[in-house]
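23S rRNA (Guanosine(2251)-2'-O)-methyltransferase RlmB
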Amino acid sequence: MADYIEGKRPVVEALRTQMPIKCVLVADNVQRDSLVNDILRKAKQRDIPVKTISRKRLDEISERGSHQGVMAEALPFDYVNGTAILKAAEASAEAHDGRALVVVLDHITDAGNLGAIARSAESVGAAGIVIPNKRAARVTAATYKSSAGAIAHIPVAQVANIASTLDRLKEAGFWVAAATEHAADYIWDANLKGKIALVLGNEGEGVSRLVLEHCDFGVKLPQVGAVSSLNVAQASTACMYEWLRQNRTAAEGLRG
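Structure:
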């Protein structure tokens, strides 16, 4: 089934963040305002076909009825497999004094959170992201927007079984750390040097019991405020930057 982006501003954002687009659909009676002109300009710059169709046909395609006379048909995201993530991680370790980070998401359900996590992962130089292929967020227009396009620059693997993927990572020399508020140790006191797989849990339930059983240790963020916890995207950023801090090198100008 095709994935459509509906509305002028969402289509502008999809084009701006380099989301793979098959074509742009424009109603034959759409008002040519500044947003429509921007869409047509960006589509031309990216050599994306623009098709003029009847508003009735757009209404038929629309799932939410919010197309405003403009929609875009997205191309499927180019996921990789678990083996590709392992290869990328090994290449990262060879290039960066043995350090590599793989971010594993245990059934994150919000596509915007996936994008925010991807933005931080790309920023710290993570080798890739692993997500389940069922009952979890997938890469959508919301992911491109919240990642500011970073999702296009980091490998994302969809896997059938998170636990078995963690076992493969451990066989490849990774230590698996679960970010959980129930951990005994603060992340500052944990050893995150070298090859680390960071597991982040579902927005409501956290890391599942089954996945925790396949992790080597748990880490948590210290909190002294009144709010009980950070959301998963915020927590992921703090955890990933602690990994980067511990693996800093003078050659890269990273100093603590």
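The longest helix spans residues 232-246.
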